[in-house]
Design brief:
With 219 residues, the chain is of the alpha/beta class. It has a single domain, classed as Vaccinia Virus protein VP39 (Rossmann fold, 3-Layer(aba) Sandwich), CATH 3.40.50.150. Helix content is 42%, strand content 23%. It has a 7-stranded mixed β-sheet, with helices on both faces. Helix 6 packs parallel to helix 9. It is globular. It starts with a helix and ends in a 9-residue tail after the last strand.
Length: 219
């Protein structure tokens, strides 16, 4: 599916988010708070949008994705790797931080992915993971449901692939409850685990720090 939508993926993102996707990616990059020159892994990097923001912030970035189509259409100077997030081809404690843009709901299992992130992130390293969310405000939630469930698929059908953009709005249901997801990160070996809502709650940014002893805790 992602191979199919890769050619116009960036264009559809800009249109369906009214350009807010750029703001969200920059927020994730700022949340890392690492020293200049730190090595950051972009998991499920897609076409490299987030890679470019991470590079612009002064970090060295590596992109990884399971979709060869996405990697083939990537627009970044960062080194790119074709691999599974559940089996990262990286050494233990090999990176200083990890970012991800709207990929969590697409993984077959978050537990194994979080465990892999804990393995490759050094003690004290940071995570900044973006994904969609559902607003808590009833009015915003209703509007979000109509837009995300009906308008987005039509935009996707007009510009890219109808079936893919029918799936993507539904995929938010694949995310576990927030408390469960944060606990999974803590259990994997992260502390200071927190969630920040962006743009009225339509997007969430999940942040955490790698513990030094393999234990975690939710802030």
């Amino acid at each position: 599916m992602f191979d199919t939508i890769a050619p116009r993926y960036d264009l559809v993102n800009r249109i369906m988010t009214f350009g807010l996707d750029r703001t969200w990616r920059r927020a994730a990059t700022r949340a890392l708070g690492l020293a200049p020159g730190s090595i950051v892994l972009d998991v499920a990097c897609g076409t490299g949008d987030l890679c470019r923001d991470v590079e612009s912030a002064g970090y060295r970035v590596i992109g990884i994705d399971l979709s060869m189509g996405m990697l083939a259409h990537a627009r970044t100077t960062a080194p790119l790797i074709h691999a599974d997030a559940m089996e990262l081809p990286l050494a233990p404690s090999g990176v200083d931080g990890v970012v991800s843009g709207f990929a969590l709901r697409n993984f077959a299992g978050l537990g194994p992915v979080f465990s892999e992130l804990a393995r490759v992130v050094r003690p004290g390293g940071r995570l900044a993971l973006l994904d969609v969310a559902v607003p808590s405000n009833p009015l915003m939630r209703a509007g979000h449901s109509v837009y995300f469930g009906h308008v987005v698929p039509r935009i996707g059908a007009a510009l890219s692939d109808r079936d893919a953009y029918r799936y993507l709005p539904k995929s938010v249901a694949y995310l576990p409850e927030v408390s469960t997801m944060l606990r999974m990160l803590a259990d994997a070996g992260f502390f200071a685990v927190e969630r920040r809502l962006l743009s009225g709650g339509i997007t969430q940014l999940i942040m955490a720090t790698r513990s030094g002893d393999g234990t975690g805790g939710t802030a």
